[in-house]
Amino acid sequence: MLGNYALAWLGKFNWWSEGEAMFTATETSVIVLILLAAVGILGWGFYRSQPFGKLGILAWLQSVALMAPWLLFFGLFAAGIYLNLVSILFLLVASAGLYIFLGNQLRAAAKDAPRQKPTSAVENGNEIPGQEAAPQLEGTPNESAELPQVSLKIEVPPIPDEDLKTIQGIFGIDTFFATETIPYQEGAIFKGNLRGEAQAVHARLSAALQERLGDRYRLFLVANPDEKPVFIVLPSRNDPKPSTIPQKVLAIILLLATIATCFEAAGILMGFDLFNNLDRFNEAFPIAAGILAVLAAHEIGHWLQALRHNIRLSLPYFLPTWQIGSFGAITRFESLLPNRNVMFDIAFAGPAAGGIVSLSMLVIGLSLSHPGSFFQVPTQFFSGSILVGTLARVVLGSALQQTIVDVHPLTVIGWLGLVITAINLMPAGQLDGGRIVQAIYGRQIASRAGVATLIVLAIATLANPLALYWAIVIVFLQRDLERPCLNDITEPDDARAALGLLALFLMLVTLIPLSPGLAGRLGIGG
């Protein structure tokens, strides 16, 4: 049975204390605010989709198809109507079927419609600010990708005249009509008019540059401050650098520390301090292995997508913590990303893999729970997360009205895995969530989302010290945006945008707890 120490540990994840009576008057406010935020995001998506006509509306409907089951589920839950597990699965299957149908309609409509200009990203406010337009030049994880004003004094050798003339020769009236060349650090900025679809033009010009000058230069397509596409050429020696030996050693040390903290967290969950009771190692092993399995699934997801797109990743730098074992890992790109689709795929794959494993553990654990199960947890455990609480209410039913609930160990492991996944989905800096937002909406919105995330964490710190810890991690390690892609103009397709919205929505309902009043009304804790 969980000891008092473990009970106190569980209570740290509630952002509101039980004694706060303010929620009794607005006990449904949390879910209502989440639903309103989701509807607001969908409304904003509809506004953005209108300039693209039928194609935009169909793409927006795909987002609605993915979000609708969750909005319906939580909306009914807030009204006191509880769907069973079969109904939830039916909603998800119907949503997937509708999503596929709309995708087919979208592809059919795309064949009959002219392709939209790639500058729509700029028109919708996703331009790269003048201070953030160019790629990083050093490749360290904390350097922001900044383009200084062109009036700054150039202190590094520019491109040799012979190479510059060769580079100018790759542009043409049928690809990019260059009207102005501006020296920029070790490279040059080419202003002009884009003549064609951004991805195709960038691929064609990159191939021409490779053919004429080999692997000596990189061609970036970004948006400048006056909302027009520009090409930036930089030497390849400024590419991201592979990890050094000391960095690899640090990654290994952090991995070993994370393994240790996962075992310590498992021991705490079982009511003892493992470091003072090493003879009970075998008892802590199953839970620690479960937490490590979630972390491994997350990193394997990143690695598989990186391998698919031929992108090098650094070793993961795990962040150990005794509270939940680990806060996840920091992974650095060691290759330039060709486009924002690749950034999204790699960033999304980790949370998707870890989230699926965690959610599966949670649901299986709830299904296997019965009186006499290994863990006895207070019902406060289930009010620490809207997602966990609602799923537990669906599966366990009236059992949640008791003070103590017997649950299978997979329930606890799954919940911890969801917390780790959700933390990494926060839309800030180079976290997975920050990269997802940057890939879908561009650098300007990603920067604003990062500031908003830090503000929310600062407020949450008043009730939960763990929020302060994670805010410090973001500020000192992950605050800067990811460097721009080689083609930073073309937005990801709408299927990726819809998946990104769903991931961010599930992040919110995982981290935001139920208020004591609302939990009581829903039958959690009587």
List the helices and strands and how they pair.
Blueprint: H1 4-11, H2 29-49, H3 53-78, H4 85-112, H5 120-123, H6 161-168, E1 176-184, E2 187-194, H7 198-213, E3 217-223, E4 229-235, H8 245-269, H9 281-308, E5 317-321, E6 325-330, H10 340-368, E7 375-378, H11 386-396, E8 404-407, H12 409-424, H13 432-441, H14 443-460, H15 465-478, H16 494-511, H17 516-521
Antiparallel strand pairs: 1-2, 2-4, 3-4, 5-6, 7-8
Helix pairs in contact: 2-3, 2-16, 3-4, 3-16, 8-9, 9-10, 9-12, 10-11, 10-12, 10-13, 12-16, 13-14, 13-16, 14-15
> What's the number of helices?
17
Which regions are unreliable across 5 or more consecutive residues at pLDDT < 50?
A: 1-28, 114-155
Q: Alpha-carbon distance between the termini?
A: 21 Å
- Helical residue percent band: 40-55%
Number of strands: 8
Q: Work out the strand percent.
A: 5-15%
Order of helices and strands: HHHHHHEEHEEHHEEHEHEHHHHHH
- The Rg value, from CA coordinates, equals 25 Å
Q: What number is the mean pLDDT?
A: 76
Strand ordering within the main sheet? 1-2-4-3
Broad shape? globular
The class by helix and strand makeup works out as alpha+beta
Largest sheet: 4 strands, antiparallel
Question: How would you describe what is shown here?
Answer:
The protein has about 525 residues and is of the alpha+beta class. The protein has 17 helices and 8 strands. It has a 4-stranded antiparallel β-sheet, with helices on one face. Strand 5 and strand 6 (about 325-330) form a beta hairpin. Helix 3 (about 55-80) runs parallel beside helix 16 (about 495-510), helix 9 runs parallel beside helix 12 and helix 13 packs antiparallel against helix 16. The radius of gyration is 25 Å and the shape is globular. The two termini are about 20 Å apart. The model is unreliable at about 1-30 and about 115-155 (pLDDT under 50).
